[in-house]
Amino acid sequence: MNKFQVGKIGGYWAESPVSLDGIDPKNILKGNEIPDDIKNVGDDILDKVLICEVTGKPFKIIKAELEFYRRKNLPLPTKHPYQRILERWAMKELFRLWKDLCVKCGQEMYTSYAPELKLKVYCEKCYLQEVV
What we know:
The protein has 2 domains: 26-90, no CATH class; 98-131, no CATH class. 26% of the residues lie in helices and 12% in strands. The chain has 4 helices and 5 strands. The longest helix has 11 residues, at 81-91. The protein starts with a helix and ends with a helix.
């Protein structure tokens, strides 16, 4: 839900204020200032505050994370960790069940395979008879 939807049902929307007060501007990097190649990233990145290119929220890279990116030859992220999680969840398909008939005995059952896939789907009893 977004802020508007939560307010519409009478809920409370809490947002942490983003503040860069007290942080030396030389230690703040925006997305376009982060090196694209991990080989161009020094250990001084651990002292920097990165700004998410989507939300504008600050985040930091920790030593173990930097070591992982170097080991896997991956570029540093330009998005806040929570934003990356949200984007991964958005790509995930929701689990759904469809009613279908067993192709062997005709028993009605639920399956996770969409009917438009035109797969042969067996009920548990018929499946076990086929594989055992």
